[in-house]
Design goal:
The chain has helices at about 10-35, 40-65, 75-90, 95-125, 125-135. With about 150 residues, it is mainly α. Helix 1 (about 10-35) runs antiparallel to helix 2 (about 40-65).
Length: about 150
């Protein structure tokens, strides 16, 4: 396992968004454990995708991953995982299994980015590239979903 390096301040807001993604995964896991209504979970997942994750993925793909060459294996892995996660969010037939797969894939992807990919990007990036990331990043949005299905 690669030892994390001190995260450049331009990448720190993305790390805070990753924390929000991990919290999403936890809420879905808790909802599954408590046999929450699948449509309540689907409504939350749809909202989370459009309110948080879609713009996060777009920023990463356009301004963060582009720092690495196209043939970089970790960049390619991250892009594949983004496509998979997007397709899981777009699933219109929610089930316990589909939510379980979604939350696990998202958590694994976030851990990969935080532990591996972002370290490589930070080492390869110029100061100008890091400042461009900071300039394109919006404030981290709060997860203020009112229907707390994960509490049972």
């Amino acid at each position: 396992m690669t030892t994390p390096i001190k995260r450049h301040e331009a990448l720190q807001p993305l790390g805070r968004e990753h924390h929000t993604g991990l919290l999403f995964s936890w809420k879905i896991r808790e909802g599954i454990k408590r046999n929450a209504d699948l449509m309540r979970m689907k409504n939350y997942a749809d909202w989370f995708w459009t309110s948080h994750l879609q713009s996060h993925f777009e920023l990463e793909e356009k301004h963060v991953f582009s720092i690495l060459p196209d043939d970089n294996e970790k960049k390619q892995q991250a892009l594949r995982e983004h496509q998979l996660i997007k397709s899981l969010f777009e699933n219109n037939t929610p089930s316990t299994d589909s939510f379980s797969i979604l939350e696990k894939q998202l958590e694994q992807h976030i851990r990969f980015e935080e532990r591996d990919l972002f370290n490589e990007i930070q080492l390869a990036a110029t100061d100008e590239q890091l400042q461009a990331i900071a300039a394109h990043h919006e404030d981290v949005k709060q997860d203020d979903w009112a229907d707390e299905f994960w509490k049972g």
